[in-house]
Amino acid sequence: MTDRPGAAADGTATGMENAMVNAREILGAIPLFAEVLDADQLGRLAAKCHEVIFPVGALLMTEEDFGTSMFALVEGEVSVTLADKRGDAHGVAKLSAGDFVGEMSLLTGARRSATVVAETEVAAIEITKVALEEILTQAPDLIDRFGLVLASRQAELDRAAADVAQANKDDLISQIKRFFGR
Question: What is residue 100's three-state secondary structure?
Answer without folding.
Answer: strand
